[in-house]
Amino acid sequence: xxxxxxxEIRVPAKPQYVSVIRLAVSGLAIxxxxxxxxxxxxxxATGEAVTNVVHHAYDGEAGDIVIGCALFEDKIEIxxxxxxxxxxxxxxxxxxxxxxxxxxxxxxxEGGLGLYLxxxxxxxxxxxxxxxxxxxxxxxxxxxxxxxNVERIIT
Amino acid sequence: xxxxxxxxxxxxxxxxxVEGEIDTYTAPVLREExxxxxxxxxxxxxxxxxxxxxxxxxxxxxxxxxxxxxxxEEAEFKLxxxxxxxxxxxxxxxxxxxxxxxxxxxxxVEIGNESV
Lengths: 155, 116
What we know:
The complex is a heterodimer of chains A (155) and B (116).
Chain A: E1 5-12, H1 18-32, H2 36-56, E2 64-71, E3 75-81, H3 89-93, H4 114-121, E4 124-128, E5 134-140, H5 143-154
Antiparallel strand pairs in A: 1-2, 2-3, 3-5, 4-5
Helix pairs in contact in A: 1-2, 2-4
Chain B: E1 3-10, E2 13-22, H1 27-35, E3 44-55, H2 57-72, E4 76-82, H3 84-92, E5 100-103
Parallel strand pairs in B: 2-3, 3-4, 4-5
Antiparallel strand pairs in B: 1-2
Helix pairs in contact in B: 1-2
């Protein structure tokens, strides 16, 4: 038997399906015992990855997004993939990141936070750029830690 | 899943109430409502986000745009009623250092409040 369950969802790359994916991922995460905050983080990170595909992958052409979720006992791995245009990760990465306190208001970016949020809200984010873009994201369940702490308090 | 935006204007103060989810699907509605606001010098815009059950970077982008517009017009812009979830997004992106935000400490987190 495999060490994990695998769930795959395929939807058209359209804005109205982003929330459907978010809710599906949240439903799977509940099963693994993630906390409320962790689930909200997962929803945002997945939403960002799917939104990126909706906006950039197909240049207005019809296309699909494939979301694969590997459910382990202690973590969830989420893969978001398209077969449209790939982007240069390093180039995009150099343009993202948090805002700085002394930034000029008139120059503030109005986008480009998606990848930054994914990296901040997930434990690991990897991108593969060959023939379309695939985002791999991992988040660990913190349940074990809590149990250990409880034990420590009792003894 | 939906979004609802309402405004009340009292002289120079515009109070807006946003309810629902802010993502790439609902963003055009919110963006249009905000674009239609008459923001001029001395006007104070206050948006209440206490009923926003989900928001991602799409929402942050919209509020950054409004903040820039208000600053350009020499108007005031403030976000109020932020839940701890929303406040966290503004914090990790550094926007809380730039924008005028008011966190709603009384907000009870409703689990699973995002409707299908």
